[in-house]
Amino acid sequence: MSPHYGSRRRLMMKMVSTDLTGLLLLTLVACAGVAWMAFQKRKVQALAGVLRAALDSAGAGILVVDGRGRIVASNRRFAGIWNIPESIVSSRNDAQALAWARGQLKSPESFLKKVEELYGNPEEHSDDTLDFKDGRVIRRHSEPLRVSGLSGNVRCARK
Questions:
Q1: 94, 60, 91: which is closest to 75 by C-alpha?
Q2: pTM score > 0.90 for this model?
Q3: β-sheet with 126-131: strand ranges across
Q4: Which CATH number fits domain 60-158: 3.30.450.20, 3.90.550.10, 3.40.50.970, 3.30.300.130?
Q5: Is 83 left (phi over 0), alpha (psi -120 to 50) or beta?
Q6: Cβ within 8 Å of residue 101, ≥6 positions away
Q7: Do residues 67 and 151 touch, judged by C-beta distance below 8 A?
Q8: Can you give the pLDDT of all 159 residues of the chain as single tens digits?
Protein backbone atom coordinates (compact mmCIF):
# COMPACT_ATOMS: atom_id res chain seq x y z
CA MET A 1 0.00 0.00 0.00
CA SER A 2 1.24 3.43 -0.91
CA PRO A 3 1.90 5.93 1.91
CA HIS A 4 -0.36 8.39 0.06
CA TYR A 5 -3.28 5.93 0.06
CA GLY A 6 -4.48 7.04 3.51
CA SER A 7 -4.35 10.73 2.65
CA ARG A 8 -6.17 10.13 -0.64
CA ARG A 9 -8.77 8.08 1.15
CA ARG A 10 -9.29 10.84 3.74
CA LEU A 11 -9.54 13.42 0.94
CA MET A 12 -12.13 11.30 -0.90
CA MET A 13 -14.13 10.78 2.31
CA LYS A 14 -14.02 14.51 2.97
CA MET A 15 -15.22 15.22 -0.60
CA VAL A 16 -18.07 12.69 -0.25
CA SER A 17 -18.98 14.19 3.12
CA THR A 18 -18.98 17.70 1.61
CA ASP A 19 -21.10 16.53 -1.34
CA LEU A 20 -23.61 14.83 0.99
CA THR A 21 -23.79 17.94 3.18
CA GLY A 22 -24.40 20.09 0.12
CA LEU A 23 -27.04 17.69 -1.16
CA LEU A 24 -28.76 17.64 2.23
CA LEU A 25 -28.69 21.44 2.39
CA LEU A 26 -30.07 21.69 -1.15
CA THR A 27 -32.84 19.23 -0.24
CA LEU A 28 -33.73 21.26 2.86
CA VAL A 29 -33.84 24.49 0.86
CA ALA A 30 -36.03 22.86 -1.79
CA CYS A 31 -38.43 21.53 0.87
CA ALA A 32 -38.60 24.95 2.51
CA GLY A 33 -39.35 26.49 -0.89
CA VAL A 34 -42.15 24.01 -1.55
CA ALA A 35 -43.61 24.64 1.93
CA TRP A 36 -43.41 28.43 1.38
CA MET A 37 -45.16 28.15 -2.00
CA ALA A 38 -47.93 26.02 -0.48
CA PHE A 39 -48.34 28.59 2.32
CA GLN A 40 -48.52 31.45 -0.20
CA LYS A 41 -51.02 29.56 -2.33
CA ARG A 42 -53.29 29.07 0.71
CA LYS A 43 -53.02 32.79 1.49
CA VAL A 44 -53.94 33.73 -2.08
CA GLN A 45 -56.88 31.31 -2.08
CA ALA A 46 -58.12 32.73 1.23
CA LEU A 47 -57.83 36.29 -0.09
CA ALA A 48 -59.62 35.31 -3.30
CA GLY A 49 -62.46 33.88 -1.19
CA VAL A 50 -62.72 37.07 0.84
CA LEU A 51 -62.73 39.21 -2.31
CA ARG A 52 -65.39 36.98 -3.93
CA ALA A 53 -67.60 37.33 -0.84
CA ALA A 54 -67.12 41.12 -0.82
CA LEU A 55 -67.89 41.34 -4.54
CA ASP A 56 -71.06 39.28 -4.15
CA SER A 57 -72.23 41.35 -1.17
CA ALA A 58 -71.96 44.66 -3.07
CA GLY A 59 -75.20 46.54 -3.64
CA ALA A 60 -74.43 47.08 -7.32
CA GLY A 61 -73.94 44.69 -10.18
CA ILE A 62 -70.21 44.69 -10.93
CA LEU A 63 -68.41 43.61 -14.08
CA VAL A 64 -64.64 43.82 -14.60
CA VAL A 65 -63.51 43.50 -18.21
CA ASP A 66 -59.95 43.52 -19.55
CA GLY A 67 -58.87 45.29 -22.73
CA ARG A 68 -59.26 42.09 -24.78
CA GLY A 69 -62.95 41.72 -23.99
CA ARG A 70 -62.52 39.01 -21.38
CA ILE A 71 -64.57 39.15 -18.20
CA VAL A 72 -62.09 39.15 -15.34
CA ALA A 73 -64.69 39.19 -12.56
CA SER A 74 -68.37 39.78 -11.99
CA ASN A 75 -70.82 39.32 -9.19
CA ARG A 76 -74.17 37.56 -8.96
CA ARG A 77 -76.04 40.86 -8.78
CA PHE A 78 -74.65 41.85 -12.19
CA ALA A 79 -75.89 38.60 -13.75
CA GLY A 80 -79.24 39.10 -12.00
CA ILE A 81 -79.75 42.68 -13.21
CA TRP A 82 -79.07 41.64 -16.78
CA ASN A 83 -80.74 38.19 -16.49
CA ILE A 84 -77.60 36.66 -17.97
CA PRO A 85 -77.63 32.84 -18.11
CA GLU A 86 -74.91 30.99 -16.21
CA SER A 87 -73.52 29.59 -19.48
CA ILE A 88 -72.69 33.12 -20.65
CA VAL A 89 -71.32 34.17 -17.26
CA SER A 90 -69.06 31.14 -17.09
CA SER A 91 -67.79 31.72 -20.65
CA ARG A 92 -66.14 34.98 -19.44
CA ASN A 93 -66.74 36.36 -22.94
CA ASP A 94 -67.90 39.98 -22.83
CA ALA A 95 -69.10 39.85 -26.45
CA GLN A 96 -71.59 37.12 -25.51
CA ALA A 97 -72.74 39.08 -22.46
CA LEU A 98 -73.15 42.23 -24.58
CA ALA A 99 -75.16 40.33 -27.21
CA TRP A 100 -77.45 39.05 -24.48
CA ALA A 101 -77.76 42.47 -22.83
CA ARG A 102 -78.51 44.44 -25.97
CA GLY A 103 -81.69 42.46 -26.59
CA GLN A 104 -83.13 43.78 -23.33
CA LEU A 105 -82.59 47.49 -24.01
CA LYS A 106 -84.78 50.11 -25.68
CA SER A 107 -81.70 51.69 -27.28
CA PRO A 108 -79.12 48.93 -27.85
CA GLU A 109 -77.12 50.96 -30.40
CA SER A 110 -76.24 53.74 -27.94
CA PHE A 111 -75.42 51.11 -25.31
CA LEU A 112 -72.98 49.31 -27.63
CA LYS A 113 -71.51 52.61 -28.83
CA LYS A 114 -70.65 53.55 -25.23
CA VAL A 115 -69.08 50.14 -24.62
CA GLU A 116 -66.94 50.53 -27.75
CA GLU A 117 -65.86 54.00 -26.58
CA LEU A 118 -64.79 52.52 -23.26
CA TYR A 119 -62.81 49.77 -25.00
CA GLY A 120 -61.18 52.40 -27.21
CA ASN A 121 -60.26 54.63 -24.27
CA PRO A 122 -59.71 52.51 -21.16
CA GLU A 123 -58.88 55.62 -19.07
CA GLU A 124 -62.34 57.12 -19.64
CA HIS A 125 -64.91 57.45 -16.87
CA SER A 126 -68.54 57.11 -17.81
CA ASP A 127 -71.99 57.55 -16.27
CA ASP A 128 -75.22 56.89 -18.11
CA THR A 129 -78.73 55.55 -17.73
CA LEU A 130 -80.02 52.46 -19.50
CA ASP A 131 -83.72 51.97 -20.26
CA PHE A 132 -84.86 48.37 -20.45
CA LYS A 133 -87.74 47.15 -22.61
CA ASP A 134 -89.45 45.80 -19.46
CA GLY A 135 -89.55 49.30 -17.92
CA ARG A 136 -86.55 49.01 -15.62
CA VAL A 137 -84.06 51.87 -15.52
CA ILE A 138 -80.44 51.13 -14.58
CA ARG A 139 -77.70 53.61 -13.81
CA ARG A 140 -74.33 52.49 -15.19
CA HIS A 141 -70.96 53.77 -14.04
CA SER A 142 -67.59 52.81 -15.55
CA GLU A 143 -64.13 53.37 -14.13
CA PRO A 144 -60.74 52.54 -15.61
CA LEU A 145 -59.19 49.30 -14.41
CA ARG A 146 -55.85 50.22 -12.88
CA VAL A 147 -53.98 47.05 -12.04
CA SER A 148 -50.37 46.41 -12.94
CA GLY A 149 -50.23 44.58 -16.26
CA LEU A 150 -54.00 44.68 -16.81
CA SER A 151 -56.06 47.34 -18.54
CA GLY A 152 -59.78 47.53 -19.09
CA ASN A 153 -62.65 48.88 -17.06
CA VAL A 154 -64.90 48.23 -14.11
CA ARG A 155 -68.62 48.65 -14.78
CA CYS A 156 -71.24 49.02 -12.07
CA ALA A 157 -74.98 48.83 -12.66
CA ARG A 158 -77.52 49.90 -10.06
CA LYS A 159 -81.31 50.07 -10.10
A1: 60
A2: no
A3: 71-74, 61-66, 150-158, 137-147, 126-131
A4: 3.30.450.20
A5: left
A6: 82, 84, 111
A7: yes
A8: 555 656 766 666 666 666 767 677 777 788 888 888 888 888 888 877 777 777 777 778 888 898 888 898 888 899 999 999 999 999 999 999 999 999 999 999 999 999 998 888 878 899 999 999 999 999 999 999 888 777 888 888 887
